[in-house]
Design goal:
By secondary structure, this protein is α/β, with parallel strands linked by helices. It is built from ten helices and eight strands.
Length: 291
């Protein structure tokens, strides 16, 4: 298993080419590359040309840091045909960048719309008709997270959509701060997913179901907004003893292809300290769970 840093908290303080050295200084041997203006930005065409990709790969080599996964967020399940077709084009370039970096793991979201769930699911499978042959021929694995405010948000429902594509090159990404949106118990999801669990994001969140559903007051009443956090471990309601024991039971940490990512986004002012804290917590808790 690879312990990776998501450098999102450092986007405003460090350049793309500085991320590998930063990760090494924080004690990480791996990076997960999430959307970045100079790399693969949210919802738009990748902005890294071959020269920048080569320079970034060299920066990784110089720092002794690898890229564990590349995470694009593109509208490949959009019910709008133009947006979906554009996302497929962007995905092709994102896959090529991943291959050129020598990486074989990607992870992402479904990126559809919950109010148009049926059309979004159709769009997802339509995109896969074009993308799966490329993904499979390049030997890439793509782990997908049922993200809040997507056409599928629950854990088991998300897994069924992934399984329905009938490709071993697609897998499940379990994002701890989405725990209370998944609805299904972690043990139930992991039992179904098995060794198709490839990527874990570690950050804490508060349970919005508590206090009779009034833990957060939103206006106007009935707004469909989804609320969650990406806090450091211990600042939220995730049961971390249970979380890591379930990963140990799944054998997640015993597989060399798996990735555990520190994904704290809400504490940029303390990003250096939080990142080292997360690294220690992930390692220590995983080792304790393994026993």
């Amino acid at each position: 298993m690879k312990y990776a840093l998501d450098p999102t908290p450092f986007h405003q303080t460090h350049s793309l080419l500085e991320f590998p050295k930063l990760a090494a200084e924080l004690g990480f041997e791996w990076l997960q590359m999430t959307p970045h203006a100079d790399f693969i930005p949210f919802h738009n065409h990748p902005k890294a040309d071959d020269d920048l990709v080569a320079r970034f790969r060299k920066a990784c080599s110089d720092a002794g840091v690898g890229v564990a996964s590349v995470l694009p967020v593109l509208r490949w399940s959009s019910p709008e045909p133009d947006a979906r077709e554009a996302a497929v084009r962007y995905w092709k370039r994102a896959i090529q960048i991943t291959v050129d970096l020598g990486v074989d793991q990607m992870n992402t979201e479904f990126s559809g719309r919950p109010e148009r769930a049926e059309e979004s699911e159709r769009a997802f499978y339509r995109s896969l008709e074009e993308l799966l042959p490329i993904i499979e021929s390049e030997g890439i694995n793509v782990a997908i997270d049922p993200h809040p405010d997507d056409f599928v948000e629950q854990g088991l429902a998300g897994w069924r959509v992934i399984r329905g594509a009938n490709s071993k090159n697609l897998s499940f990404a379990y994002v701890a701060p989405h725990t209370f949106h998944y609805e299904d118990p972690m043990a139930t999801v992991l039992d179904e997913v098995g060794d198709r669990l490839r990527v874990i994001h570690v950050a804490d969140t508060f349970d919005h179901h508590r206090s009779n559903g009034l833990r957060y007051i939103t206006n106007p009443p009935g707004t469909p907004a989804r609320v969650h956090q990406h806090n450091k471990i211990g600042v939220g309601d995730v049961d971390w003893d249970h979380f890591f024991s379930e990963l140990a039971r799944n054998g997640f940490d015993q597989r060399e292809e798996t990735v555990m990512v520190s994904g704290v986004f809400g504490e940029n002012e303390d990003a250096l300290e939080v990142s080292t804290y997360q690294r220690r917590q992930m390692r220590d808790r995983m080792e304790a769970a393994r026993g």
